[in-house]
Amino acid sequence: MSQAYFQEISDWALTQIQGDEVLLASVAGEATDFIRFNNGAIRQAGSVTQQQLSLTLINGAKQTSGHVQLAADRALDDARVGRMLGQLRDQLQFVSDDPYIAYSTDTSVSADIVAGAVPDSSDVLGSIADASKGRDMVGIYAAGDSFGGFASSLGQRNWFQRSTFNLDWSFYLRDDKAAKNLYAGMDWSDDAFGLKVAESASHLGALDREPVVLKPGAYRSFLTPAAVGELMGLLSWDAFGLQAMETKQTSLLRMVTDGQTMADEVSISEHTGAGVAASFGEFGFARPDKVDLISGGRHSGTLVSARSSRQYGVETNGANTGEQPESLAIAAGSVPTAGVLAELGTGIYVGNLWYTNYSDRTACRTTGLTRFATFWVEGGEIVAPINVMRFDDTIYSLLGEQLVGLTDQSEMMLDAMSYERRSTSSMNMPGALVNEMKFTL
After folding, report:
1. Beta-carbon-side half-sphere exposure of residue 209 (alpha carbons within 13 Å)
2. Cα dihedral angle (247, 251, 257, 263), rounded to 10 degrees?
3. Domain containing 83: what range?
4. 311-329, pLDDT tens digit by residue?
5. Domain C-terminal end among 150, 169, 189
6. Do 264 and 185 have their domain in common?
């Protein structure tokens, strides 16, 4: 879909309102190539082009919403939108007043389009084929445009579009042994991809050694950006939203009520300007380039949706209804990325975590399992893989009193989810070196 077509169809829809009605129209869609690999060969390839129009009809304090798939054919789309508006108008008679109804009354017009340097998918296949020679490479490559738009009968018009790629893959060895990696962003580089491949190849070789069995205990550990991202993904469920804080359900409750802190080096933000999500929310409210959530280890802000804004009398910052981050970032630190094994010395290199959950939400205590390329390191050199271990530790420890430092480079990680459509959520994460990480079994 083009910006021009969205403007055409939304302008037509906005002419159909009656009396004091207010109409909000938003679109979300993609034009994506998907390629699935197994054993280093293409097993499935295809393209998806879709666009879903969402309409919210408001009259006073009543509102109702619906969705239609657009066909990029004006006759078909006008008919679909017209039927949907009729259904929404009928539904308004039966819904109750919404005490927290909120929508932007702005009249701004904006277009935020970043093409990036995403090569044609056929050109990328050569690089992937070279990397897969002699290896069982399993993964999926997704690349193309994601777009969204917002229009209201009050005059607001917004559009955003991003071109991105996301290669999520593993080099599989045998049984449960695999070296997982991710290369994602807006500007493809063969050199950067080559470094990722070399890293995974090195890990694959180390995985072939006899595993080390460690006893439960506290170990000096290095968490890769992917492992840190897994922990932050857990916190994203409930940690940063205003409603969770007002209802005392946030896992960062001790930071909010008791002044609990993390290390001074830790600064966490919703950094829309460095991500690939839209700069406006679902009800038209603008999102700042950056919302500081934790600054210098101290709680400094929250994500505020339009509804929470009305409910608690706090200005919205365009957060989604669930008040979950879409462009979460942790500022880089001072530990040299190229020398993390030397900095670790002797301990555990945690390549990935999974099955993470809370073992004590109010204490922000988390638990989960190590996964994929996790190794025992001695004297700055990988010795052998370790068998799967369970950790149980608090974020206040891992990013607080036990934190040695964060790496001086962050890694962009795009969400690989494609339910309904390709996700535009992302993270920018550094690695974390901790003096002690607690493993329970």
Report:
1. 17
2. -160
3. 3-189
4. 999 999 999 999 999 999 9
5. 189
6. no
